[in-house]
Write a structure and sequence with these properties.
By secondary structure, the protein is mostly helical. It is about 45% helix and about 5% strand. It has 9 helices and 2 strands. Strands 1-2 form a two-stranded antiparallel sheet.
């Protein structure tokens, strides 16, 4: 399976906010300055804003937040567009229902990259320090995801419904993503 191997904080700096690639370890403001974009643009060139650029930035932000590659994201968009209902809601629901995202949201892993490695926990692994640290961090986050049901003592969780957009706490505009792909 292909995955992004480059610097993760650079992606957050490019988007101007924490994309939760290394959430909970320490605040991203301590790790880098979000105001500084990666690279050094020449002083005499000013960046021009266009509709295409704003749509592209919205798509890249959403894609990087869920750590999916371009082809995967495009396929999710196509499935969402062909499904009944609002395409934007369908797209967010599909991305939120991915196994790595559910494992991350349940608190069994600190990052989505780590969640991709954690499908099930064997009995002897359930008490490893890294797993207990992730669960402690999940308790401190105290986020309520009503579509997920978890038993942190047994280290189990399951999907019981579809995610609610208002409780996600994410700040991207899926309408811009839909406009980007509909052109």
């Amino acid at each position: 399976m292909a995955r992004y191997l480059g610097p993760k904080l650079r992606l957050s700096r490019r988007e101007g906010e924490d994309l939760e690639h290394k959430s909970g370890l320490r605040p991203i403001e301590d790790k880098c300055r979000l105001k500084n974009r990666p690279g050094n643009p020449p002083k005499n060139i000013r960046s021009k804003s266009s509709d295409y650029l704003s749509h592209l930035r919205a798509k890249q932000k959403m894609r990087r937040y869920y750590s999916v590659l371009e082809r995967q994201f495009r396929n999710y968009y196509r499935k969402a567009a062909n499904s009944k209902g609002d395409t934007g809601v369908n797209l967010v629901n599909m991305l939120e229902c991915r196994l790595d995202n559910i494992v991350y949201r349940l608190g069994f892993a600190r990052t989505r990259a780590e969640a991709r490695q954690t499908v099930s926990l064997k009995e002897k692994v359930r008490e490893h320090q890294r797993v207990t640290d992730s669960i402690d961090l999940s308790d401190r986050r105290q986020q309520d995801f009503s579509w997920l049901e978890s038993d942190l003592n047994e280290r189990t969780g399951r999907l019981v419904g579809m995610p609610d957009r208002t409780s996600l706490g994410i700040s991207f505009d899926e309408g811009m993503v839909i406009e980007f792909y509909s052109k």
